[in-house]
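seq as requested:
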Amino acid sequence: MSGIISFIVEIIIAIYLYVDAPKHNKSPWLWAILGFFFGPFALGIYFIKTGRKVVGWIMVIVVGLLYLAFIVLVVLAAVLFANGFAP
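struct tokens:
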């Protein structure tokens, strides 16, 4: 279920970037593809590039911290599985 929701969010971000990019003389296809594959991170970068710097930086920092937390949790889980959960 969460995979479907994230897919829908990525589609919405890609559509928004495709529609909004020509207003700022940016390539709509490039930003739509970036928005689809990188989602909120690409949206934050787009906001920074188009002059909405505060919202863009907040989005980039929050998404970056969430990605970092996910990576730390995956590495921690791998270490725990490798050691067999033994102290």
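The chain has one domain: 2-83.
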